[in-house]
Specification:
single chain; alpha/beta; 3-stranded parallel β-sheet; about 45% helix; globular
Length: about 675
């Protein structure tokens, strides 16, 4: 009898599928296992809880393997507990990054979750195969699996942690057969999930907030060019068949390896042949930006180059084992990308050790004053494998205060049981108070609405052409939030209220609250449990766009007059009003998902704004005054309509669906807006 193995990389499905990536991780485990034990194993892969439940009820597995991440740990454990309730002899195996790296915390983790029999650590392909080898050599007798330690694995026996010898990493990754070209993952294309690929493993950087900074991962290993070529070509053919447009690369530093240029050339050829991918999620390298820009140049706006300084303060960088390129260098790179029409984004994390509100805001201001397309700030997650979660003395040293919150959309009700996955985040340190945290979040919301959304690109250029800094403009708006219309102010208030109310003192408090059916229904309606910042950004840009534009222009007028009296008697009012009309022409129906939307509308302008936008940042709008006016058409390209309809099919066009869409195109937000064409 073949050993029956179920491997699951589960996603919550309470409101919608929370994680839409292909289950590449368990696919790689399965393909490696089938290579070694092809005639002795029967392996099935799962993404959705409903499918796994039906398979278990139809026929029990001998082994259930589940991925373990912050976004699905409790969901995976629910199914581990379920199979154990049916047959205690079923071996349950977990693997993933939501697991400590030190033995003390590993033992605590496993003792807290007694229905996990074995947890692999570090790379999982070889260690999982060691478990299967042990089972098969003992005629599937699950009790004998735990007689001696298993390489690359850990388990609890007689209330003690039993840890096998650490396994060496797989140096030549082609040792793992592709789960795509073998057909193992083909069934997931019909769900229109996002293909997830990996061309290299490892990270040379030592950032202490990331579990990939561990010494184990320091060397970068690669799949061969032939492997990548065959895999991406197979994916492109299948994606074209199922009208899938997006792909995600799991590489930590795409673009830094010399052969990534070859991968880019391949992707370009696939775009030409199969119209795939239209967009990509990629984490580009931390340094060597010129190399990355050059390597990815062929793909243009397909991907967004990431600038991830995490902090702009050198004292903070020293504490987190991080080094950044100089600000002036970052500015020149951002300008080069901007001149090429290529999107880029910059990311910071707060609150990091010794960061203050002042250094954080100043850092965001420095990034705003580059040509970077969007500036993002993430809350520090307390992750296993980092000192922020696993080292109590480190946490105490910086007086970290923490809370729990739901991972956006990671909840569901399965066979009557409420399951929630949540994350532990930092909300204060000895140098960064909770009040500072709220202020920083409000500042970020203004950046998200006024700068990251691309809505106000013409206005930002106008400010630059008159020698104003973008950061000063954002700071002015932030200090005058009380001057917005009441409907916008209510959104700002809601943002602060939800930023506070999403936080919980304990896991138990969070679970008890959302397990109340009344509160759970709020999750299902999208009124809670989502990304608070993106949700309020969309609330502002969708239903209140015209009011927002009017208020921002009023404040901008005041800002200009407070800074430069010489502009007051110029054509300021005329220029500002024309820019406002242009922006509304571009953005007024960005979130309209109708198939029969009017693709073309025309407006007359006193200035040739479109031609002016193509000039350098110092060019004055007044020089583009046209006495006979100019006509500009605002049009949607068919691929934009297709993108929106695809998003509607995937996520819906309600608020939660729009948030998903905006997260997908962040840095490329302009893709939702009309294109301006001079007549």
């Amino acid at each position: 009898m073949k050993l029956r193995i179920y491997l699951a990389d589960l996603t919550h499905t309470g409101l919608m599928p929370a994680t839409e990536a292909f289950p590449l991780n368990v696919g790689l485990i399965a393909s490696y296992c089938k290579k070694n034990f092809s005639n002795d194993v029967d392996i099935k892969l799962f993404k959705f809880p409903k499918d796994l439940k039906e398979a278990i009820d139809e026929k029990l597995p001998h082994v259930l393997g589940c991925s373990n991440y912050t976004w699905n740990c409790n969901l995976s454990y629910h199914f581990a507990s379920y199979v154990k309730s049916l047959d205690k002899n079923i071996i349950t195996v977990f693997g993933g990054t939501n697991y400590p790296y030190d033995k003390f915390n590993q033992e605590l983790f496993l003792k807290k979750r007694p229905n996990i029999d074995i947890h692999t650590f570090y790379e999982g392909e070889r260690s999982f195969s060691k478990i299967i080898e042990r089972l098969l050599s003992n005629n599937n007798d699950s009790k004998k699996v735990f007689d001696t330690p298993i390489q690359g694995c850990q388990f609890i026996k007689k209330n003690k942690l039993i840890s096998g010898e650490q396994m060496q990493r797989i140096k030549f990754l082609d040792e793992i057969p592709s789960p795509y070209t073998s057909g193992l993952l083909d069934k997931f294309f019909k769900y229109k999930l996002t293909p997830l690929v990996e061309t290299a493993r490892g990270c040379p950087f030592k950032c202490n907030f990331c579990n990939a900074g561990d010494d184990y991962y320091n060397k970068v290993n690669q799949f061969s060019n032939d492997y990548v070529n065959e895999e991406l070509t197979h994916i492109a053919k299948m994606a074209n068949k199922y009208n899938i447009k997006h792909i995600t690369f799991a590489d930590n530093n795409f673009g830094m390896i010399p052969r990534d240029r070859t991968t880019v050339e391949l992707i370009k050829s696939l775009q030409e042949k199969y119209s795939f991918p239209s967009t990509m999620t990629v984490w580009t390298g931390k340094n060597s930006k010129e190399k990355i820009i050059d390597a990815t140049r062929l793909l243009g706006e397909t991907l967004s180059i990431s600038m991830s300084p995490q902090s702009m303060d050198q004292k903070v960088l020293n504490k987190i084992s991080r080094s950044n390129i100089k600000v002036e260098h970052m500015k020149s790179i951002a300008k080069e990308l901007s001149d090429q029409g290529r999107p880029q984004h910059a990311e910071v994390i707060m609150p990091l050790p010794e960061e203050t509100l002042e250094t954080h805001i100043n850092g965001l201001a420095d990034l705003l004053d580059t040509d970077v397309s969007s500036v993002l700030s993430h809350q520090l997650q307390m992750l296993h494998g980092t000192p922020y979660l696993d080292d109590k003395e480190y946490v105490k040293k910086y007086a970290y205060e923490t809370k729990y919150r739901l991972v956006p959309l990671d909840y569901g009700k399965y066979d009557g049981t409420y399951i929630f996955d949540y994350e532990k985040i930092a909300i204060a340190t000895k140098s960064f108070s909770f009040e500072d945290y709220i202020k920083a979040r409000k500042f970020l919301l203004i950046i998200a609405i006024c700068s990251n959304s691309n809505t106000f690109i013409p206005l930002k250029k106008y400010l630059l052409s008159n020698n104003f800094k973008k950061s000063d403009w954002i700071k002015y708006i932030y200090k005058n939030l009380d001057k917005f219309d009441v409907s916008i102010k209510n959104i700002f208030k809601s943002f602060v209220d939800e930023t506070k109310s999403e936080l919980w003192d304990s896991e138990k408090d969070l679970v008890n609250h959302y397990s109340n059916e009344k509160n759970y229904q709020k999750l299902l309606k999208g009124d809670a449990g989502g990304n608070v910042l993106f949700r309020h950004k969309i609330m502002t840009l969708n239903g209140n766009l015209e009011m927002l534009v009017n208020d921002v222009f009023k404040l901008t007028n005041d800002f200009i007059k407070s800074k430069n009296a010489n502009l007051i008697n110029s054509n300021l009012n005329s220029e500002i009003n024309e820019l406002k009309k242009y922006i509304l022409g571009m953005t007024a129906d960005s979130f309209d998902f109708r198939k029969n939307i009017d693709l073309n509308k025309k407006l007359n302008f006193k200035y040739d704004i479109l031609s002016w936008l193509k000039t350098n940042e110092k060019t004055k709008l007044k020089d583009y005054y046209r006495p006979n006016s100019v006509e500009i058409s605002f049009i949607y390209k068919q691929h934009q309509i297709d993108m929106k309809l695809d998003a509607k099919d995937r996520y819906g066009d309600n608020l939660s669906g729009l948030v998903k869409l905006v997260q997908r195109v962040e840095g490329n937000f302009y893709k939702l807006h009309r294109k301006a064409v001079l007549q």
